[in-house]
């Protein structure tokens, strides 16, 4: 991709551009070089991207993926960056920002179905549905980010996952195609969706249920109030940092310490009786005495131990250091290997 760009620059033809950049410019697809990704992530950290494209339509998204594939460029698909930690060295390749500005056709309601562009904010989709008396997604109200991002990670809360309501998704593929897939054809699970490699969600349809608008809005407000009370939303953050740990019989854990820290409900006997146990990541981190731990401008939140916040001036390396510290301490204490829910990408210096 050439020398690392240091400053944001809108590109034009005839400026000694790379072949990929030249192709995008020829197709009138807006592209920036050296765009700092800190401006596009919830944590407000992240170095520059070699190239950043903010497509306006599904067709532009597909053409960008095709051009990147044919030029051999690495692609990072982003929504609104609310569940992403980008290294301070930035991203070597092309960042495809299917978020702000990608709201082609917005939200369209027809019967109990709702079709929406990937760049629409999740809360906007839920509000439109609630206004029309459509229920099924209000438990997710207050989760930040775009519809596309929520689908990519199978966002969920209060026992509801977004894929449970998906009728179909439309994907842009590296081949340049736009493909529509039934929701039931995409395997998904806890905080994951097995989308085709290199694809980007551009549009989706949800199958909802009739309900009373006042009741739906009331539940949504309750969920939002609960999140504000429990989560440090007053600071830049990336949502939950770690996935909850699912223990199964035979897991080599320190049950004595688990019981001491979390209670009898987390004993070996309880695990064998239930067949599995969910160990909340925040309780494990807190039990290791890490709540409030700081590194540079980053902190494990004092309000919720599975959130990390930017107190001001934090670097991506600070968050990466806290993540490694928490993972190491939890493993040493309980034998639990925490997996990150936040996605780490780019160059960490």
CATH class group of the largest domain = Alpha Beta
Mean pLDDT: 93
Instruction: Tell me the total number of β-strands.
Output: 23
CATH fold title of the largest domain: Uridine Diphospho-n-acetylenolpyruvylglucosamine Reductase, domain 3
Structural class: alpha+beta
For the biggest β-sheet, the strand order reads 1-2-3-6-4
N-to-C CA distance: 19 Å
What coarse outline follows from CA principal-axis ratios?
A: globular
**Count of helical segments?**
9
**Radius of gyration from CA coordinates:** 21 Å
The CATH architecture category of the largest domain equals 2-Layer Sandwich
Describe the structure.
This protein has 349 residues and is of the alpha+beta class. A hairpin with a 5-residue loop joins strand 12 (166-172) and strand 13. Helix 3 (122-131) packs antiparallel against helix 5. It has helices at residues 19-26, 58-70, 122-131, 147-153, 213-230, 255-262, 268-274, 281-287, 316-334, and strands at 9-10, 31-36, 48-53, 75-78, 84-86, 91-97, 107-110, 113-117, 134-135, 156-157, 160-161, 166-172, 178-182, 188-189, 192-193, 200-207, 209-210, 245-247, 277-279, 294-295, 298-300, 308-310, 343-345. It is globular. The relative contact order is 0.13. A 5-stranded mixed β-sheet has the order 1-2-3-6-4. A 5-stranded antiparallel β-sheet has the order 7-8-16-12-13. It is built from 9 helices and 23 strands. The model is unreliable at 1-7 (pLDDT under 50). The two termini are 19 Å apart. The chain has 3 domains: 9-97, Uridine Diphospho-n-acetylenolpyruvylglucosamine Reductase, domain 2 (2-Layer Sandwich); 107-230, Uridine Diphospho-n-acetylenolpyruvylglucosamine Reductase, domain 3, CATH 3.30.465.10; 245-345, Uridine Diphospho-n-acetylenolpyruvylglucosamine Reductase, domain 1, CATH 3.90.78.10.
């Amino acid at each position: 991709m050439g020398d690392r760009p240091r400053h944001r620059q809108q590109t034009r033809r005839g400026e000694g551009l790379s072949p990929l950049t030249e192709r995008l410019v020829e197709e009138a697809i807006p592209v920036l070089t050296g765009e700092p990704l800190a401006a596009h992530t919830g944590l407000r950290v992240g170095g520059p991207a070699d190239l950043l494209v903010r497509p306006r339509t599904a067709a532009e998204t597909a053409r960008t993926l095709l051009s990147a594939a044919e030029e051999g460029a690495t692609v990072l698909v982003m929504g609104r960056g609310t569940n992403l930690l980008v290294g301070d060295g930035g991203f070597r390749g092309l960042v495809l920002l299917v978020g702000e500005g990608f709201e082609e056709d917005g939200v369209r309601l027809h019967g109990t179905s709702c079709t929406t562009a990937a760049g629409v904010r999740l809360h906007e989709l839920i509000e439109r549905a609630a206004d029309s008396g459509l229920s099924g997604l209000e438990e997710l109200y207050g989760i930040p980010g775009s519809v596309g991002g929520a689908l990519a990670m199978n966002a969920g809360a209060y026992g509801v996952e977004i894929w449970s309501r998906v009728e179909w998704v439309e994907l842009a593929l590296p081949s340049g195609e736009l493909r529509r897939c039934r929701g039931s054809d995409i395997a998904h699970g806890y905080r994951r969706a097995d989308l085709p490699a290199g694809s980007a969600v551009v549009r989706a349809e949800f199958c909802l249920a009739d309900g009373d608008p006042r009741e739906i809005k009331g539940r949504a407000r309750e969920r939002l109030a609960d999140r504000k009370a429990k989560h440090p939303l007053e600071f830049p953050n990336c949502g939950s940092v770690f996935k909850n740990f699912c223990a199964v019989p035979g897991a080599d854990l320190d049950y004595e310490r688990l019981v001491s820290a979390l209670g009898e409900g987390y004993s070996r006997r309880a695990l064998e009786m239930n067949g599995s146990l969910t160990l909340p990541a925040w309780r494990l981190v807190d039990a290791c005495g890490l709540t409030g731990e700081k590194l540079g401008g980053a902190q494990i939140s004092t309000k919720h131990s599975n959130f990390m916040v930017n107190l001001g001036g934090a670097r991506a390396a600070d968050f990466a250091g806290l993540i490694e510290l928490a993972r190491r301490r939890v493993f040493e204490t309980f034998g639990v290997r925490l997996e990150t829910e936040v996605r780490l990408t780019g160059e960490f210096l």
